[in-house]
Amino acid sequence: MSISVVINTCNSAAHLDRVLESVKDFNETIVCDMGSTDDTVEIARRHGARVVSFPKQPGNIKEPGRNFAIAQARCDYVLVINDDELATPELRRYLYKHIHGANPASALYIPRRNYILDRFRVDAYPDYNLRFFEQENVDWPPTRNSKPVVKGRVDKVPSNKRELALVHIPYSVSEMLGKIDYFTGLGIDKEEPERVTLLALTFKPLYHFIRVYFLLGAWRYGIPGFIGASNEAVYRLYRMAKMYERHHAAKIRGVISDVAPLDIDAAKNCTSDKK
Hints:
Blueprint: E1 3-9, H1 13-22, E2 28-33, H2 40-46, E3 50-53, H3 66-71, E4 77-80, E5 85-86, H4 89-99, E6 107-110, E7 112-113, E8 115-116, E9 119-120, E10 129-134, E11 138-139, E12 149-150, E13 154-156, E14 166-168, H5 173-185, H6 198-215, H7 222-247, H8 249-258, H9 264-274
């Protein structure tokens, strides 16, 4: 019995070295690249991964390429990890022990450790994800945030041993800002424009800050917790701001078209007169 690791990528160079190093002792690693323009493919090949390609998807979503990537696996079982997750040596040993046992499950939910900067998020644990399954008995629907559908018995890796969990690499502050910009605009053109009011802009972000910081317990994590809660509030603010911008796009274009082009020669003359 053997295990293939499958990773779908798109411009994943930032963390891919660490990710591939963490899975180097499995039977094989498959990187299914979906239109990278950075060093992703070169990094994958340098680590000895088998690289296959799948067309880039709108919004860079990975789910349409999951079944294709899994189908490339040559092993009995498949471990799917994201391009910002690490598999621990303890998890690897657990999975091999499981498939060589007397009655292995067809699939396993695996816990995941999440972080806010340097702080482990106790409130988000165990964050189970169905990521390990028999290669022939899984179907992954091609829609955003879909879950794999598995034939057969499904079990869980125990969460009381945190060393068995996948590790979600913490986002840097720059990555947080980039994701805010990316996700606040994702799919916004397909939604009905939301009426944005000053009241909503004031209180919706505040509500989400209070929810994350106080109700979900981000206050336990000190400064990183405050940053995480603020990040959630800023996300809500800019989501609404982009809705407002979309709703008033025609007016904004009108303002721009009404501005007279700058007369460069006149500007030069004014500058000369001042000398």
